[in-house]
Amino acid sequence: MLISVHEFIKEMGSLYDDTETKALYYEILQSILHCDKTTLLIHGDSLMTEEKAKEFQEIVSRLKSGEPLQYILGNCIFNNLSFSVNSSVLIPRPETEELVQWILNDHNRDQQLNIIDIGTGSGCIAISLKKEWNHANVSAMDISNDALGVAKKNAQNNNVSISFYHDNILQTSNDYPQYDIIVSNPPYIMEKEKVNMHINVLDHEPSIALFVDDNDPLLFYKEIAKFGQKHLVNNGFLYFEINEMLANEMKMMLQDNGYQNIIIRKDNNNKDRMIKCQKK
Question: Quick one: which of 244, 248, 227, 263 has its CA closest to 190?
């Protein structure tokens, strides 16, 4: 028999708020019972076997330790696509979906443009762009071999062709062509922000993909801006996901590095989370 959503909320305690806990409840059950929410609500009790109940409790135990559900289940949905995820890569966020949609809405998808995603992680940005922009030539770079393994698996599972580079944007070692678009969601969380972060992020997601030194929080953005000056075509575009607290600093840095038409965009939570510009 199914544990009720109210019992589940009580069991999870204060680790998540009630809205988050309720969403987790339905996501877990839909995943282990392989059904949609309507079927779950109508037939959930008959679908819940002793084996499935044990699986549910094992997931709950891992959740209570702070492990993110996406890592427990091994996948997540991003831009309506399924992505494998593990502790080698960040869990894709909704605001990153907004960045992808901004790029897609800005450009004619019949164009055969060259695009690179720097710090690709799971590959969610590069793969989503390629999936909806078949004529584009899409590449992706990451410093982590483990992350690239996940991204390559995701590209294969989503039936797209991506060119992958194992490289460090702080000191690149490969030869790169000219690009029409460079996009990146690099590390941008300052160390001092850790005190406000959830345990499931701090203890489980890869710190190399999250954090940057307080003394140089724009480190990766500056290096990508320099990379863009070498490898963007004239009037080519840079798109970034950014730290909401550093939007003005980002704008000034991009101006200092020779970019124009700089636009800061808010996400659905009204935070300054995206920026785009063009190479002169």
Answer: 244
Q: Max Cα separation, the chain?
A: 64
> Residue 136 and residue 156: Cα distance in Å, rounded?
17
Segments in the chain forming alpha helices (H) = 5-12, 18-33, 37-47, 50-64, 69-73, 94-106, 124-132, 145-157, 199-202, 219-231, 247-256
Which range is least confidently modeled, 2-6, 27-31, 226-230, 257-261? Answer: 2-6
Query: How far apart are the two ends of the chain, measured CA to CA in Å?
Result: 64
241 CB-near residues (< 8 Å, 6+ apart) = 95, 96, 99, 184, 185, 188, 273, 274
- Determine how many CB atoms are found less than 10 A away from the CB of residue 52: 15
Strands (E), 143-226: 163-166, 179-184, 189-190, 211-212
The whole-number pLDDT of residue 20 equals: 87
Q: Cβ atoms within 10 A of the Cβ of 211, count? A: 18
Number of helices (H), then strands (E), belonging to the chain: the values are: 11, 11
Q: How far apart are CA 76 and CA 90, in angstroms?
A: 11
pLDDT in tens, 188-247: 887 888 777 776 777 777 888 888 888 889 999 999 999 999 999 999 999 999 999 999
Digit-coded pLDDT (tens) for 14-27: 888 888 899 899 99
